[in-house]
């Protein structure tokens, strides 16, 4: 099979590329390891809680145990289905701070400043309300909450009481402060990148989707990537590309496939029996992610909490509300609001983000609600300094790679966790929440010592599902990609997904991935026309 472009991965970036490249007249083959997004939980927003460890719809990754996080192996969900992680995530649509992207440009990523990227944020989104800098006609629907829980009014008032603004649009010109979440949702249903971009693209004859297909390795001939070897239905098959191959398998899958193809640290590859094709030490390095510590608060009444509403028999009424009105708790996501704040003097942008909503979970783990009314607030550092890696466990494509985020290994990150917890406690103690918030459950008021609080964070925290940076772009010699997302040393090969980020932005990252892919599609088509 021969096409103009091969797109490896039908996640957020791959879906955008399939759509935009084919709209530009190119023939595209999309290779996806997972299958169609037919599972009903994908399309019910609150279904995320049942998808994070789904055996068929995720890769089932776990991190390497690390002493810095209590010696635990953490679940590390990544979508293995049409839409990738946009089909299993918490639906959050959040832009980074403008300074995030300006920092990218300052680090040598020419063309990736906020001014450069803003048109692509506007291009991909369809936010009916509009507003300064917002897009209203893009493929990706973006909506305010279908139901605003009563608790959020108290949260907003409490934010103002501690000196933080309340923003009507969390993706508007001001990032700092309190705002309700925006979701990748239309009406009652999630709209993943597959629904927004891929399904429309599949109506074009020049788009071929090969799902349930495992990419085994890239084919490199005389220094050029000319195709990919896949396994589908028990048979191996070679797919070739005239113009080029775009790797969009995500921050874990993209470095893994490069390494399997002999592109990476030569000594490490040779030790696994993989013949090095290109010695590229930066492949799989620079893994970044947000580390969340969840605090639980008891609420004075079930009026403020959804704990009762998401258990039977009341859940039956919620199902009916969702199906008939498109409202109720089944339209909720894990983050119903965000608080961005600066907790140190002299910062140009927020260093702490708090997400949460009026549900509390038994043992603090998403899944089983507490019987008493409660809420959960997850706090994380916006720009962590800890850096991890993705390396191969073996030369077998079927084997999961070794994922080592190295959370909280940088001293500054541990200090930020403590500042974040202090911020949440001050917020929840503000006068507007008197009579609503009855007290702290986890870690609990008895724990005040900083060492004990940090120990709590290390023992109970986890990923916010924002891995990025593992095949970064940059101008320095160790950056695997140039600013046009081309892999240095191999012609005809680009990487387009969260792995290209030089640094993690101050946000949930899906909206940034969509924007990066929109810009990449333009660059690919420009190069194709110039060839």
From TrEMBL:
One Pfam family recorded for the sequence: GMC_oxred_C
Record domain Glucose-methanol-choline oxidoreductase N-terminal: where: 250-264
Source taxon at top rank: Bacteria
Cofactors (names): FAD
InterPro entries: FAD/NAD-bd_sf, GMC_OxRdtase, GMC_OxRdtase_N, GMC_OxRtase_C
Entry-linked SUPFAM superfamilies: FAD-linked reductases, C-terminal domain, FAD/NAD(P)-binding domain
Protein name: GMC family oxidoreductase N-terminal domain-containing protein
UniProt keyword terms in alphabetical order: FAD, Flavoprotein
PROSITE patterns reported for this sequence: GMC_OXRED_2
Similarity section: Belongs to the GMC oxidoreductase family.
